[in-house]
Structure formats: structure tokens, C-alpha cells
Amino acid sequence: MAHREIQYRNKPLTIHKAVSDPRFNEKTILVTSTWDYMGLWFKRNHKEKALFYWQQAQHFYHATTELPKNSSPLTAYYCMLNAAKAFLLAKEVTFSDRHGVSGRQRAGRTYLSNEIVKFKGGGILAELCRHLGESANNEEYSLQHLLYNMPFIHRAYDLSYDSSPELFIPIRNPEIVRSRTTNEAWFCAELDKKYANMNTVNRLSNNYERDAGITDRFVIRSTRRFDWIPSQKSQSLLRYQQYHKTLRKDLFYIHSPQRLWYIKRSNGVEGFIERSTITLIFAAMHKLSELARYSPERLANHFEGRYNWLLSEFISIAPLQFIDELSCELTGYEFMPPGRVS
Questions:
Q1: What are phi and psi of 185, to 5 degrees?
Q2: Same domain, 290 and 243
Q3: What pTM was computed for the model?
Q4: Of 264, 293, 315, which residue sits at a domain end?
Q5: Residues 6+ apart with CB under 8 A from 11
């Protein structure tokens, strides 16, 4: 084998849930409630105003779990809105009270493709986008395509829209390795048996290829490189942090008791959106909350159609996925339920 695993502080170096400022040198935080842990984190860091909005977000989340699906998008969205405010306050980002997102409806039948969402240039979502390195320039997307780009409901989406190609490919054993002869280092991961073929590789961006040097497993690797110099670990880690930020545009996780990572395909895919799950969830839930407030009969029609399960799954799962990603992004830590390997 032409490469070796990189160890950092006696642990294999790998990908991290946080994008902006991941703490690779910290242990995983094992918690039964991320809500409660983050409440203490805000207190310890003297973020009292942010804590107020975080606690309100938690109250809205609990209300969401008690409401029927025709009403729950409203409280789910306010959960996310207040959590986003807490995040921006803790990061000392100035923002206006505008939500930064709006919606409209295309003429025609009650389809998710006719529900349009606009990422506006100012407001809370806009500042969230900018912090995550995304644009916020009045781009518009359909609700259908927003949902298509979320890994945690991708199976539900595939079964609702069986003509759409799979967008997220599961990966196993993601790791960062370096050459045995040079300081070059790169990302690699094993493809699940179902996807272990060149057809899958050809659907990924041109930044990935099969590692032809490994024959007993189907391993893909990034063609992008960075320098890892063992005698300069601090500087090497800084280089990896920049590399990792670029890498995470292609790699996504699902909040669960296990570490579930996916690589997102991009070649020749209609409806592909290059944004984080955080901003996609925020925008999609805003649209559903608008329907719950102003067009409840239209929302009911969506639930009565073929998208019932997809929308139900999104409303049920999205708040916790959003809170987990936001918490990781805010602290730089990773959170997992107790009983998992840290």
C-alpha cells in the first residue's frame, strides 16, 4: 500500500461534523441531551442573550413534538429561527430581525416543485449562509429540490420521486492518509458494496477517483492534496483544517447513534444545490411554516398527496438534525449519545 494512516494525538485523523472550526484534538461529547449541554455551554461562555434564544428554541421544539403535522412546521421553524439567533449572537455576528428568506408559489397544481423559496441578501439566513461560506444573493429553489439535497430524508425522497437519481452515496471508514514517500496527504473512504463500481465514481465530482492501489476493497480518494509533515503537527493541522473545509462541501452526515457519512454526487444531476444541510433545512421549514400560517388548506393538500411520508419525515427529523449541526458548528465539538466510542 502506497500510503499510511495519519495519527493525531493517538487517534486516526478523520473528517469532522463541524466545518468552520473543527476541534480535531477534542474527544467526542457524549450527551443524552444536546439541548441541555449547549445551555450549560452558553452559561460557561457568558452568552446570556444567546442562552435566552436557545431556551426559547428548546421550548418550540418540545411544542413541535406535541402538535399534528399540519401545525408543527410553524413551531419547528421558530425553534430553528431562535437557535440560529443564539448561534449568531454567540459568534458575535450582527444581524437584522428579518428572517432572510421568503417564498412564493408557481401557478399550477399543488406540487412541491411549485413551492419556491428565495435566499435573500439580508437577514438571519443570509448571515448564517455567509458564516458557512455560502452565497445569499436572492437565489431561488423549489421546495422539492431543497428536500432532494438533504441526506437524512434521502431514502424517503427516493421513494417519493423514484425517477430522480440517488444523490448521496454512503461511505465507510473515512480517513486521512499520507504518502509513504512524500508529505502529500489526502482523504479516502470505502464505498458500500452496493455502490462499489466505476459507475458510482463517474457520478462524483472530478475531485474523486478510485484508489487503484487497493484491490481487496473499493476505495475512493480525493485528487486534492495537502502537506502533512510529522515534525510540524501544529502547522500540518492548520493545513488540514483548510483542506477539510473544502472537503466538507462534498461530505455530509446524518445525526444518529452511529457515524453515518455520505458523499454527494454532482455530475449531471438536475436539482443539485451546493449548500449546507443547515441552511437548506432552515429555508425549507420556513416555506412549510408559511403554508401552515397562510395557506393551511394548501399544506393539507400536500399531505394528502404522494409526498405525505417525505414531508412527515422531514418535519419529524429536521429539528434535531439542525440542532446537532448548529451545535457542532458553534462549539467545534462532535456530539454522540452515551455508549458510543469517543
A1: -135, 155
A2: no
A3: 0.95
A4: 264
A5: none
pLDDT, one tens digit per residue, over 46-70 is 999 999 999 999 999 999 999 999 9
Residue 119 lies in a domain: yes
Whether 52 is in a domain gets the answer yes
The per-residue pLDDT for 1 is: 58
Split into its structural domains, the chain has a count of 2
Inside any domain, residue 159: no
Instruction: Write the pLDDT tens digit of every residue in 213-252.
Output: 999 999 999 999 999 999 999 999 999 999 999 999 999 9
Is position 157 within any domain?
no
Q: What is the largest CA-CA distance in the chain?
A: 65
Helix-strand-coil split of the chain, %, nearest 5 = 45, 20, 35
Judgement on whether residues 182 and 204 belong to the same structural domain of the protein = yes
When computed from its CA atoms, the radius of gyration of the chain, rounded to whole angstroms, is 21
Distance CA 342, CA 339 (A): 9
Domain that holds residue 108: 31-151+274-336
Residue type, 250: D
b/e string for 147-172 if b means 16 or more Cβ within 10 A? bbbbbbbbebbbebbeebebbbbbbe
Looking up cell 449531471, which residue turns up? 268
Measuring CA to CA, how many Å separate 237 from each of 10, 232, 261, 270? Answer: 14, 9, 22, 36
